[in-house]
Write a structure and sequence with these properties.
Length: 254
């Protein structure tokens, strides 16, 4: 198939879904106060563009700060866990149990500790997104082939040399995969926190729009969050293609 078909496939599918959505809303005369049509969402997005942009910027930079902390902590913890069997045995079960806790339940606690504002939102974005980064970093290091490590040790390489020069580059595809997943989770964490403990951001906008029965505005906020997450996802995909092309050349050829 033509490469252009793969490039345009998501947009064609999105257009088809929007047409189907609009057609169903029109044919069934669905109330805009219950389930707005794409046209209604678009008009609300344009009508409240200044307000939405203000709240979107707040959500965007707060998410990036929380996600930046998640990258640092996730990579460091993943490096420690993946490079040591003792650390893997001691920390991995605890981290898994912690990840099972609902992050929304932490928001009231964070509000008590840090007050209403950016603090709870940043920490919620961090808490919900660092685990995939840590796991993938640890997996990339822990699955380093023993035979390769033995050969390098025979050639005089130290354990840290093997991890930094072989294990770390080998882990990059895993890490980029976790970054693409983690950034979407970070937006979820920020939005959930803003719905509970903020007077700014897309989460706050969703609550305000819902309470005033402006469903078109609420859906417009959701569209903006999804668009921001997609942009960051594509950014990490671009970085991945330029820094780990060696790991994907077989897929590219296919």
């Amino acid at each position: 198939m033509s490469p252009s078909l793969y490039r345009w496939a998501p947009w064609l599918l999105l257009a088809l879904l929007l047409l189907l959505w609009q057609g169903l809303c029109s044919a069934l005369a669905v109330s805009e106060f219950i389930f707005p049509s794409p046209w209604r969402i678009a008009t609300q997005l344009w009508e409240f563009k200044a307000t939405i942009a203000l709240h979107a910027w707040r959500t965007f930079w707060v998410t990036l700060v929380g996600f930046g902390i998640a990258i640092v902590v996730g990579v460091l913890l993943g490096f420690v866990i993946g490079s040591s069997r003792l650390a893997y045995a001691a920390l991995y079960p605890l981290m898994t149990g912690f990840n099972a806790l609902p992050k929304a339940a932490f928001v009231p606690i964070l509000v008590v500790w840090f007050g209403i504002g950016v603090g709870p939102a940043i920490l919620t974005a961090f808490l919900i997104s660092f685990f995939p980064i840590m796991v993938n970093m640890a997996t990339g290091l822990a699955t380093l082939e023993p035979e390769l490590e033995d050969v390098l040790r025979v050639l005089g390489a130290r354990r840290m040399d093997v991890l930094l020069k072989i294990g770390l580059p080998r882990s990059l595809p895993y890490v980029y995969g976790s970054l693409k997943v983690g950034i979407t989770l970070a937006f979820v964490g920020t939005t959930v926190s803003e719905m509970t403990a903020s007077n700014e951001g897309i989460g706050y906008l969703l609550i305000s729009a819902g309470s005033s029965m402006q469903m078109g505005l609420a859906f417009a906020g959701l569209v903006v969050v999804g668009a921001m997450a997609m942009v960051m996802y594509e950014l990490f995909s671009l970085l991945e293609r330029h820094t780990t092309a060696w790991a994907h050349r077989g897929q590219h050829n296919a």
